[in-house]
Amino acid sequence: MLQFKLVLLGDSSVGKSSIVHRFVKDSFDEFRESTIGAAFLSQTVKLEKHQDVTIKFEIWDTAGQERYKSLAPMYYRNANAALVVYDVTQPDSLVKAQSWVEELKHKVGDQDLVICLVGNKLDLCETDASARQVDVEDAQAYSKEQKLLFHEVSAKTGAGVGQIFQEIGEHVYERKTAESAASAAAQSRKTLNVELQRPSTNDSTSCCA
Amino acid sequence: MDDIISVGRSNGKNGVRMVYLSSKSPSVPNLNEAFYGDFRRRISPERPQSHLSPTPLAEEQTNASLIDLYGDDENGKDENEPDDAEQEDGRNSELPVSPTLSPSVTTPAQGSNEEAPKDFSQYDRYGFKKQNAHITQEQYHEWWDEYSRYCIRRKRKWQDLLAKSGLALSDNDIPDRFPPRSEKLKRYVRKGIPAEWRGQAWWQFARGQEKLNRNKGVYDKLLASLNDRNDKVFSRDLEVIERDLHRTFPENIHFQKQPNDNEEPLMIQSLRRVLLAFSDYNPKIGYCQSMNFLAGLLLLFLDEEKTFWMLVIITSRYLPGVHNINLEGVNIDQGVLMLCVKEYLPDFWQRIVTKEQSRNYEFLYKLPPITLCTASWFMSCFVGIVPIETTLRIWDCLFYEESHVLFKMSLSILKICDQEVAAARRVMRNRVTNKDDSDIEIFQAIQSVPKKLLDPQTIFERVIFKRRLSLNNLNQEEIDRCRRYVSSQRLKLKNYADIMGDKPITKDSTKRDISIGPDFVENALSSEVYGFRRSLTTAHWNNSIKEKVRQIRRK
Question: Which listed residue, of B167, B201, B318, B553, carries a Cα 20 to 30 Å from B378's Cα?
């Protein structure tokens, strides 16, 4: 079984915890307590595309408030994937998401980290189309330009949530197998498992930022 | 007393409705009255025999049953309390059962024609849900049956203590004053303050009145000026506060909107005012997520103005810097906690860091991932981390003994986690081989173990005050010194990193990693590494010398 570390980032109250709970427990609470610091959850999935591959996601769900950003390097240290979440009814939250993408690219470097932009609260648009404040095309265009995966989901109905993790799983898996093939060719003695552990990066930000 | 601050003013900004109206105190539910409606239904003096009864209302156990219990349980003996003989029962009549329902109390049962009325048996005496993902209703009742009796016994002890100290109860059964600090009082506090007295006791122990006396009228002025604030920083705080109001104890009855009620719950209105006033009062902190839980819990026990000042005291005296914008106080306290784990739980320490990190004190600089979980224990002072009665017991000690209590609690919980992980491994026959699996195991234990600590006695009696753990040396003086040490070390490392420069990330980030490896840390810390160790051992040495001197003197 492969183990991938995944971190959730995004503005407060966009639904990060709700997405994780939908994925891990398949449940939804209309009123969920704000996350303080971080919460850790894990969930195992079988890849649809590669039937024999099972992935254990080690998920770090973080607090959304701006000031928690200073703790963020601790979360994304060694992460294989990041879900950057915004609320489709809150344009400001997309701006925040974009700044998270910037930060990840700057601090981690994008070559190893799979980033997925996720627009949440799709259900609000279904009941009232005018609730939508972020066009799907805009977010899609941005994702394409930044080479991000992109999904719109509803943690409330569950729509699209499973797909995010399937797609991320596939991407990380394919990336890792390609890498390990390359490193095997390079006569590396490292095993696949070792390779899956990303080395720590930019430590100077991890405590003093 | 009921100052109208500003009535129903609404503000178009962000579509946020700002209402700073009405008084400071009506939101405070009286614990004895909050479930009065329920109490009336079960006015029978008999203690409920079974909580698994199919009749929902007749046998429910809420705080009302606690009030009942105060009335009829006579034979309670506290095994652990050598002092003070049991007293006569004369005081049973003192127990207040208010004949009128306070208008300030939200009565959840009223006027709910459309939605099914709430089943109060599901809620505890503070309005929290008994059952959750980690605790079943049955488990709750099984524990509560025992613990409520314990609470009664303790309350009697407190009543005796007050009587002996010549302190009377006021009309509402709540003491105006508690006895001066003493070893005995400390022991009483550690065993739990009676729930109905908590607000008053916390207020006294935290010296809230002194703070308020020095700042008379400040809270009102803050509220009055809130409408004039519209700068960017404040509006940012305001936005986050608004989002968090309904995410603060959403399962608690006092924080819920009642069916057919268009008004926001009074509790939410109070919470908004306290948090907004605070963000104005202390711009260094503004609003930090987690303060909603601190203020929310305080509001269940104290009026709004007192809640405000308690929040000021917690964020400055007990948890300095923890809620500041840069959260450096969090990092410092987590560094201190890690030093404590290293010192007091060496086995667990080996599970969470590599030998290398441990040897060169790199962990002060690059905190172990476990601190991502433990940080919230400090930020919210365990609110939402452990079940409510356990939280309240921790708060009792926090206000009497200050913040080292939080470190002791954390160490106790980590010790239980360690035992659980070890036990699970024995069952699994050491199937866990790689570091990732073992990390996941620990993270999961750290999150689930505290949630199951339904019975406060689990950590209070068995772990925390046991000499075996030798946590007794960990006093406030030690923690304060430790905080200063970690703070200065982290500053040095930061300066060092600044001087070394922030090299741009290259593809080969491993190289960079090496450059901030052991040498880096050792260089930065140089002689100071051992300074702390010395100071720790000195502290122990000092304590034992002090104790010896005391013994000699006694002779």
Answer: B201
